[in-house]
Amino acid sequence: MIAIEDLQERLTGLELPAGTVTFEQYEAWITALALGSPPLPGDALHPTFIFYAGLRGAGYPVGHLFDLVSCPPEDGPMIGEMDLRQHRSPQVGEELHVTSQIVSIDRKQGRSGTFDVMRIHIDVRTGSGELVGTLDNVFIYPRKETT
Amino acid sequence: MTIAVGTELPEWRVEAVSEQAMHTMALFLRDPNPIHYDPVITEAAGFGTRTVNQGPSNVSYVANMLIAWAGEPSAIRRLRVRFEANVFAGDAVTASGRVTAIEDTPDGTIAHCDVNLSRDDGARLLTGTAEVLVLA
Predict the structure, then answer these.
(1) Are the C-beta atoms of residues A9 and A96 closer than 8 Å to each other?
(2) 3-state SS track over A91-123
(3) Touching check for A84 and chain B: CB below 8 Å?
(4) What value of ipTM does the predicted structure carry?
(5) I need a labelling partner for A1 at 20 to 30 A (CA). Which of A36, A40, A137, B132 fits?
(6) Cβ(B102)–Cβ(B71) under 8 Å?
(7) Rounded Cα–Cα distance for residues A37 and A59 (Å)
């Protein structure tokens, strides 16, 4: 099992690669169908697109969050908490700029064994710098003796 | 919209969480985690034989309830949740909520709410709080 001290030294405060994302109308339509969303006005996107922007618009794939902490997807990493703030609705066709930073990583013991808890802060802005929303996510990484 | 402390939000019901929707969201999110699409790996990881819904999709059910109540997606100013348990393909789940406080702010009146998502067997899946702008 990777030492938590090593992870903390390497990751705490680390700014992750920034990136951009633009959601198309068909993506809004298909995800609304998948999630059973109520009708949304005009080009407004569902509030959870703040979260989706944080994933899709980051300058790294989702799997990078697993690789960073040496936790393979088959070990069952998952999100534990989400704090989503929406300043306004993101819009279809709008380029969103995403920056993210690892706030902390800690090791804990629970009924299911050892797991690591990583907190990430994400800002979602327009190209002109207007803040559209923020996220404070907590990811849970189960630890097995072999990982 | 007339609200007061104690107002119960209209529930939002999902009769059966769709495995196909998990596949759609895995593609949309570029999420390689196999517990969302591969029942064999899901079982090997100790989650049972049904695939696990993406956590943000569970949040979406709560957000759907808030949008339907507020009438406008931009009215949701904050949604803070803790994931208490997994949601599996086929689960019937219900989002519910209750107004706990009303606050006048420079942006308008904000309703503070407790929100949660539960399964029909009573399992608590997601709990949290929301701040919703009350539209005139």
Answers:
(1) no
(2) ECCCEEEEEEEEEEEEEEEECCEEEEEEEEEEE
(3) yes
(4) 0.93
(5) A137
(6) no
(7) 28
Task: Give the three-class secondary structure for A147.
Answer: coil
| Interface contacts (A, B; CB < 8 Å) | 125
pLDDT in tens, A69-121: 988 877 878 889 999 999 999 999 999 999 999 999 999 998 878 999 999 99
In the numeric block, the tokens 């999709």 are attached to: B57
Which residues in chain A touch residue B18, judged by CB atoms under 8 angstroms apart?
34
Percent of chain B with pLDDT over 90: 86
pLDDT tens for each residue of B19-30:
999 999 999 998
Q: Which of A43, A67, A82, A132 has the most B C-beta neighbours within 10 Å, making it the best mutation to test the interface with B?
A: A82
Asked if B33 and A79 come within 8 Å (Cβ–Cβ), the reply is no
Q: What is the mean pLDDT of chain A?
A: 92
In order of B15, B45, B88, the CA distances from B39 in angstroms are 21, 10, 11
Q: Which two tokens stand for residue A88?
A: 């306004």
The answer to whether the Cβ–Cβ distance between A31 and B35 falls below 8 Å is no
3-state secondary structure of B83: strand
Neighbours of B10 (CB within 10 A): 11
* A105 touching B (Cβ < 8 Å): no
Q: For A87, which DSSP code?
A: S
CA distances from B80 to A70, A116, A125, A128, B2 (A): 28, 21, 20, 27, 24
A20 in contact with B at a CB cutoff of 8 Å?
Answer: no
